């Protein structure tokens, strides 16, 4: 049954409710079908509205997808910034790379553990982060500020690390993190059900440990290489 707006309510309230409902439905469809297989018609069907209404509010599929992607990004950026500031205030000079990574990944994962809409958003972020072209531009517009903030905190806890290695470290962290957000089911099959890619709480507990150890080892090994070479040439 097609939804019918209550015309007794103010127009802006009806519009906000209608667009939010369409965005929620589009988010679920894009997460389930992927960008290529999703259509405006499938979004309209999921939202129980006419396709013309989706076009009226959002235009084509590309603009609808961008609206979906941009909607939650600022919320996550704000929560991450708060998490970084709170961690620094609590830990002071005792900050660790594990703690910084936890502040980076925890806000989004905790939202996703509680809310299916955020889980859908996770899958969309995973798709966009593994894509190029215009989608790479979209990732940059929404999340580059957070990436730079993360790098600043990485420099605080690894002050002797070369910038090049910190960038590589962030690259591997971002890739591993967003792959985990994709909830692909691959590790479920490999482990024969022993672990689940949908177990976001397990990911939250383990990811900071794994990547902190790896990034720290990377920065330490690369920084020692020039020194070893210098000693050999003396």
Summary, kept brief:
This protein is mainly α and 234 residues long. Helices cover 80% and strands 0% of the residues.
Report on this structure.
It is a single chain. This protein has 234 residues and is mainly alpha-helical. It has two domains: 1-59, Orthogonal Bundle (Arc Repressor Mutant, subunit A); 71-233, Tetracycline Repressor, domain 2 (Orthogonal Bundle), CATH 1.10.357.10. The protein has ten helices and no strands. The longest helix has 34 residues, at 200-233. It is elongated and about 60 Å long.
Descriptive keywords:
Tetracycline Repressor, domain 2; 2 domains; elongated; 0% strand
Q: Secondary-structure map with pairings?
A:
Blueprint: H1 11-37, H2 40-47, H3 51-58, H4 61-91, H5 97-114, H6 116-129, H7 134-157, H8 163-181, H9 186-190, H10 200-233
| Number of β-strand runs | 0
The number of helical runs is 10
Low-confidence segments, given as residue ranges, are: 225-234
The sequence of SSEs as H and E is HHHHHHHHHH
The CATH class assignment of the largest domain is: Mainly Alpha
Summing up helix and strand content along with how strands pair, one would put the structural category as mainly alpha
Strand content: under 5%
Net shape: elongated
Largest sheet: none
Can you tell me the CATH superfamily of the largest domain? Answer: Tetracycline Repressor, domain 2
